[in-house]
Amino acid sequence: MTTNGERAEEGRPPSSLPAPPRTGDFLGKHRLSAAISRLNQEIQFLEEELNELEAMEPSSSACKEIFLSTEGKPDAFLPITPGPENTAWHRWFQRVRSSHSRKWWMHKGASDVS
Amino acid sequence: MSFPELKERHVAATAKVNSLREQLKQRRHQLLDTDVAKYAKSQGRTAVNFSSTDLVCSRTLQGHTGKVYSLDWTPEKNRIVSASQDGRLIIWNALTSQKTHAIKLPCAWVMTCAFAPNGNSVACGGLDSACSIFNLNSQVDRDGNIPVSRVLTGHKGYVSSCQYVPGQDTRLITSSGDQTCVLWDVTTGQRISIFGGEFPSGHTSDVLSVSINTSNSNMFVSGSCDATARLWDARIASRAIRTYHGHQGDVNAVKFFPDGQRFGTGSDDGTCMLFDMRTGHQLQVYSQQLDNSDQDAPIVTSIAFSISGRLLFAGYSNGDCYVWDTLLAEVVLNLGKLQTSHEGRISCLGLSDDGSALCTGSWDKNLKIWAFGGHRKVI
């Protein structure tokens, strides 16, 4: 919403009588009034927010909360994760064990498991 | 009041707004005494350590004949809906790789799709400025197509994103190029509330993304081309609760953090950020230092958190898919550099409901399912 420092309307002929109102002027005034109302509303919101910041705690409180919130939650994507481990996590792979060795294949096609 | 007087007032009000914004920016900066990474390091945390074979592409879902733009999982089972430039929605069983439905859309220019919580319906929207609902159980028409069961009309611009309210099959939120978000009643097709638009606290440019808080479904956050994210209370349409500044470009993606008190963003400026919902603090920036100029920096198209929040998955326009350690703000893996990676831009991604699989969608026309296939230590 940044505007240049606009100067007052130029080009109006100096006249002792006011010019008759034109449609363009009326619409221009109306739009400008609406814009000013919106700006005043925004000023109010911004001042409220500035007041809010006076009593607001710094970011370290939230950082600590985030840190704590990630702890203790089982997460299938982590190499080291708190339990319990959900066996359903393994459904994306199929393990087949032969009698001689432990082999498993990644399942690329259709599966009976659902 | 005369026109010149009004103009003077406008100039003065604009100057006041700019001055207040600058004061806010400075005051906020003073309140940032630390970020998440500095705090985590001070507690002795080190980054998650993946070996290069830990995250595996266990499925490649092929079938779309155009770029994949959007995807969404069902809350239960293993199904995914995807939307593509080919003008179709495909419903997949991600476990079997089978396609259970293929829906040819009345309007081919689709940008977003979503699964209803009960898994019986899907929604999609795009350049038609509408959101179409399809009931997957309905009888197909003569052409073998699932008919549209409801069209949500009212937006004056494209529908960029849609999400059902968690647990509610009758409520949906959309974001639009008309600078608003809308809460819909799907059964009647009516707009319940419009967020933004005429009100000064609304977005001032296209809204690109939306994320509903799973801990409190009354709250949702939106991301916009005006480089901000905004928090809304679905019960209060008249003003945004808070505006989050920090990005230097379009906010393409927003996603709530699992604790429901923070949210992440992804932007055209190439970074992701983590914001505190309540205070508005910018808690962390996730950014790679690049040797070349910022003009070459790939943009972030999509983000998702792992179920604990410890990992942040981010898709980029150059095909990279970084796995960030959320706490340490380090990239711990790049799915885009693996042999099985996509061959084009990652346009969308999402985590399964139990957090065991990540689905990525790409301009290479494919979707891929990624899961942890390494040795897991349970403590």
Automatic annotation (TrEMBL), chain A:
Compositional bias (Basic and acidic residues): 1-12
Keywords: Cell membrane, Coiled coil, Membrane, Transducer
Residue span of region Disordered: 1-27
Localization in the cell: Cell membrane
One annotated Gene Ontology cellular component of this protein: plasma membrane
Domain G protein gamma: 33-106
Domain of life (superkingdom): Eukaryota
GO biological process assignments: G protein-coupled receptor signaling pathway
Keyword match Cell membrane: yes
Pfam families: G-gamma (PF00631)
UniProt key word Metal-binding: no
Coiled coil: 29-56
Primary subcellular site in the record, as a coarse category: membrane
Stated name of the protein: G protein gamma domain-containing protein
Protein source organism: Canna indica (Indian-shot)
Taxonomic classification: Eukaryota, Viridiplantae, Streptophyta, Embryophyta, Tracheophyta
From TrEMBL, chain B:
Pfam families: WD40_Gbeta
Source superkingdom: Eukaryota
GO annotation terms (biological process): signal transduction
Entries under InterPro entries matching the protein: G-protein_beta_1-5 (IPR016346), WD40/YVTN_repeat-like_dom_sf (IPR015943), WD40_G-protein_beta-like (IPR001632), WD40_PAC1 (IPR020472), WD40_repeat_CS (IPR019775), WD40_repeat_dom_sf (IPR036322), WD40_rpt (IPR001680)
Alphabetized UniProt keyword annotations: Repeat, Transducer, WD repeat
Any one GO CC term of the record: plasma membrane
WD repeats: 61-102, 152-194, 200-242, 244-285, 339-370
Entry's family note: Belongs to the WD repeat G protein beta family.
Record-given protein name: Guanine nucleotide-binding protein subunit beta
Species name: Canna indica (Indian-shot)
